[in-house]
Design goal:
This protein has helices spanning 3-23, 63-66, 79-85, 89-108, and strands spanning 32-37, 43-48, 53-57. The chain is α+β, with helices and mostly antiparallel strands. Strands 1-2-3 form a 3-stranded antiparallel sheet, with helices on one face.
């Protein structure tokens, strides 16, 4: 894959992830202070409100939602499982559609 296409996909991933974090009822951006790409745009960096950083390669971006988020303290949750268990079908469907797009991008990388 050429660098330009990878960078376009990296920025799409970043946009989707930021949207899912800010729109998720569990996280709502309260615990996560920042999500960005590193300088070479091949790694996503998630920084919590305490300053702890976790890095994900672009091809593993969906792990942001399947890993337990230590930054949630006593509310340590796996966002994917929490959303899947939700009874709000509209929010669940919206999340899952965007999550599937993340998985499609991972497959392209």
């Amino acid at each position: 894959m050429n660098l330009q296409k990878r960078n376009i996909l990296a920025h799409e991933l970043l946009t989707i992830i930021k949207h899912l974090i800010s729109e998720n009822d569990l996280v709502k951006g309260v615990f996560i202070a920042d999500v960005k790409l590193n300088e070479s745009e091949d790694t996503i960096i998630v920084r919590d409100v305490t300053g702890k950083k976790t890095q994900y390669s672009l091809s593993e971006a969906s792990y942001i939602f399947t890993d337990n988020l230590d930054m949630l303290g006593s509310f340590n949750k796996n966002v994917y499982k929490t959303v899947k268990a939700s009874e709000d079908d509209e929010k669940k469907s919206s999340f899952m559609n965007l999550y599937e797009r993340i998985r499609e991008i991972e497959d392209q990388l």
